[in-house]
């Protein structure tokens, strides 16, 4: 038996070896969008039943596009954007209870909430609904509570997680259990537990209501 025969016998067959994807037609794609070049590992795109939001590259400050889902094709270079942050936008998340509300966080140490009209933006949006201040360094991630309306979490490079009541515009708790940069955070289905990963190579399961790890 030759070496080649032995090698082929050891190769696992795959049902997906000859599966090929077919790209959408260009008119059904979102074209001519200059996405952010920020190296931060977070979401540059967020989608809900009405809109797609995309963090874009801009000179000075931070901005993101919001497009109705059916607004496909080539986008105008001067399309309207959400432009209220003074630093690059690092993360965006739609409110699970209101498809017209989106949260964003930024290098400028703030979290902002925005209202998007049903038809999308007709001009640059610079006026936010709520601004949340408390972080001392840039804010890396935002996460909505899956079952409690108006509760939003933000994680910053100050190693803190703020639990915000966005209806009141204030923090109801600060989680101070991380010793290094937070890499990600995610709720379980009912929001009773929060999982985080950190630069210190630890995964933490936190009960956010009481701040217990």
From TrEMBL:
Domain of life according to the entry: Eukaryota
Q: Mind telling me which PROSITE patterns this protein's record contains?
A: WD_REPEATS_1 (PS00678), WD_REPEATS_2 (PS50082), WD_REPEATS_REGION (PS50294)
The answer to whether the entry has keyword Nucleotidyltransferase is no
The answer on whether this UniProt entry bears the keyword Acetylation reads no
Keyword field? Repeat, WD repeat
Instruction: Please give the Gene Ontology molecular function terms for this protein.
Output: actin filament binding
Q: Which InterPro entries match?
A: Coronin, DUF1899, WD40/YVTN_repeat-like_dom_sf, WD40_repeat_CS, WD40_repeat_dom_sf, WD40_rpt
Residues in WD repeats = 82-124, 132-174, 175-213
In this record, what's one Pfam family?
DUF1899
Which residue intervals define the domain DUF1899 in the entry? 9-73
Q: Which family would the database say this protein is a member of?
A: Belongs to the WD repeat coronin family.
Which protein are we looking at? Coronin
């Amino acid at each position: 038996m030759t070496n080649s025969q032995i090698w082929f016998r050891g190769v696992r067959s795959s049902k997906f070896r000859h599966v090929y994807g077919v790209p959408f037609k260009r008119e059904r794609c979102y074209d001519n969008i200059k996405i952010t070049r920020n190296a931060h590992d977070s979401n540059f795109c967020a989608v809900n039943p009405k809109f797609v939001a995309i963090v874009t590259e801009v000179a000075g400050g931070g901005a993101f596009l919001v497009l109705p889902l059916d607004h496909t094709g080539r986008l105008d270079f001067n399309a309207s954007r959400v432009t209220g942050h003074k630093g690059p936008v690092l993360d965006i998340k739609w409110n699970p209870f209101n498809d017209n509300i989106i949260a964003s966080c930024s290098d400028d140490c703030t979290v902002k909430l925005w209202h998007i009209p049903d038809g999308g933006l007709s001009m640059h949006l610079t006026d936010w609904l709520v601004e949340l201040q408390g972080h001392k360094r840039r804010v890396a991630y935002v996460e909505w509570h899956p079952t409690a309306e108006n509760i939003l979490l933000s994680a910053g490079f100050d190693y803190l997680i703020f639990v915000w009541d966005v209806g009141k515009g204030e923090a109801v708790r600060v989680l101070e259990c991380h010793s290094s940069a937070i890499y990600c955070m995610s709720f379980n289905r009912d929001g009773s537990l929060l999982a985080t990963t950190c630069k210190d190579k630890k995964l933490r399961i936190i009960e956010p209501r009481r701040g217990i790890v």
